[in-house]
Give the backbone structure.
Amino acid sequence: MADEPLILAMCCHYCAYAAADLAGSMRLQYPGNVRVLRLPCTGKLEVNYLMAAFERGVDGVIVAGCLEGGCHFLEGNLRARRRVERARKLLAEIGLEPERLEMFNLSSAEGPRFAEIVTTMVERLKRFGTSPLRPDPTRIERGVQEMNQQAEAMLAGDKR
Amino acid sequence: MIVADRKKIPQIRDMVKNHRRVLLVGCGTCVTVCLAGGEREVGILGSALRMALRLQHHDVVVDECTIERQCEDAFIDILAQRAPEYDAICSLGCGAGVQALAERFSNIAVYPGLNTQFMGILESQGVWTEKCSGCGNCLLGEFAGICPITRCAKHLLNGPCGGSRGGKCEVNANIDCGWQLIHDRAGKLGILDPFEQIVPPHDWSTGLDGGPRKVVREDQCIAGLGPKS
């Protein structure tokens, strides 16, 4: 697994997260390289989240939001796309391939598309190779787990 | 407010790459509002700079902090204890902030992370435009509230010139002709008559041509803590 790409998928609660769940329910096979991080909406995404992920050494990031026009909060996914574009420009300035970051739009009914997106990204990142910023693998796993826990804690806080 | 934008990351990387410990310092006023140098931008640049340095195998520690206002020494106090731990500071303040930090920390290299652009306003979300050149002798009252020095590419006080076409400037078709704006607004206000008079040359001695300027309010000065000569 050490040479396999590690991907962080930042998924909207209302679409891609449900699509990932559906992919599981449908018993679809897709590469196990992806770690899913649930966002209340991709509009919650900030450029510094993306920078933090790459700084911790993930090989690629998928941002997955609702179909355009279908955002639960009207335009969160449109804002996310602009932020992703800005982050891609930053990656190019830094010296990383901007294609390591990509935004996709899908609905909660598209489990197979989620599997397809992950497969596409894994193939692309295998071509790019491991991120030159990747520390040892256990540290990455810990970093992703920490981010997950922080996000879940924030969501739990929102519900109260 | 003062409007600025960030320098390119390779340029900032090359400025700091030979240092060991660098402190990125943001500013909580103008540059926060124009999304160039506030706490969030410091965070983004911090990550980006660490990555850019690591990719070129430069072993530099980059830490981040943001203070309320860089252009006042009292607010820089908060850095007094922390700054000596670093051999360079990269300021995400305007040019005034960078120089205030350089004056305060005489033994630490200080670099600008931003290009300070102009004094302007928020035209629409994400778009800022220049409105004031800080000439030290405001003429807005005589030009219907629109500055001919800033808004006319040629700084004409007796405009428009022959390059005004359809309300646009010959310098750039995306720029409104400042003098067209002045005439349109003065016409609406019914104050066009004064424009028949020739306006004498502007007194630039109050501007930057007279050297760096200083404003002194003697009633506000504290005895023994007067302005530096």
Notes: Chain B is about 25% helix and 20% strand.
